[in-house]
Specification:
By secondary structure, the protein is an all-alpha fold. The protein has ten helices and no strands. The mean pLDDT is 89.
Length: 236
């Protein structure tokens, strides 16, 4: 296994997906959407529903929509960008870089709503008197956000980070259905390689060995994040 180039490439593809999707999208984007959904507006119910709706769809539906939107020539995205005078016909799923952009973008759209709900719940649990006291002291909105909101969101941020890292390391279905690990093997994650070895080549022993490696990686990452959560290993 440790001399298998395909194993290391698949492991790197999985790690790259975690790096691209977790910090910028699943944490920052989810927080921004939660802040918008928490605004005192008549449209807040619409915002919450619109942000959360994709997360209730199945992976097969999401993948079908992604293929329909991203296909060249008559795909929705290419036709949309041409409305702005951009004379280009990107092959989103045939170029390795664009394929990663597509997979990460689709995954963010599909799953960010769940993290948004967690952030929104934490925002609503922040006591109002903290903001009232800060407002009396003359604090600006940015100062209240930096000194009150962000510190109060640290515990739930750690939980979301842990859940998201574990989930992203197990990415499989959307990549299988959208690109099938392509072009070539440039987007093939480790679980897809395990699936191919175990259920297509029937090398169950090798597939099980790689599964143990993935389990060990997730175990180590979980322990590190829990230990970093505070005294006694508590996340909250």
């Amino acid at each position: 296994m440790f001399t298998d180039i395909d194993f290391w490439q698949s492991l790197w593809n999985t790690t790259l997906f975690v790096i691209l999707s977790t910090p910028p999208g699943m944490i920052i984007l989810a927080l921004l959407l939660a802040l918008l959904a928490n605004l005192n507006s008549k449209l807040k119910t619409l915002f919450r529903s619109a942000y959360f709706l994709p997360s209730i769809l199945s992976v097969s539906v999401i993948s079908f929509l992604a293929i329909f939107i991203l296909q060249p020539y008559n795909g929705f995205l290419n036709n949309f960008i041409q409305l702005f005078g951009i004379d280009a016909e990107p092959f989103w799923l045939s170029n390795p870089v664009l394929a990663w952009v597509s997979i990460v973008g689709v995954t963010l759209w599909w799953t960010v709503g769940f993290n948004m709900i967690l952030f929104l719940t934490a925002l609503q649990d922040i006591p109002d008197h903290l903001y009232e006291a800060a407002e009396i002291d003359g604090a600006t909105r940015w100062q209240m956000f930096k000194s009150i909101t962000l510190p109060q969101l640290i515990p739930i941020s750690r939980v979301i980070l842990l859940l998201q890292v574990l989930s992203s390391f197990k990415v499989f279905a959307q990549i299988l259905l959208i690109t099938d690990g392509g072009p070539g093997t440039s987007t093939r994650p480790l679980i897809q390689y395990i699936y191919e070895m175990g259920f297509e080549r029937y090398d169950l022993g090798y597939a099980a060995s790689m599964s143990y490696v993935l389990f060990f990686i997730l175990l180590v990452l979980s322990i590190i994040q829990i230990r970093a959560g505070g005294q006694g290993g508590r996340m909250i």
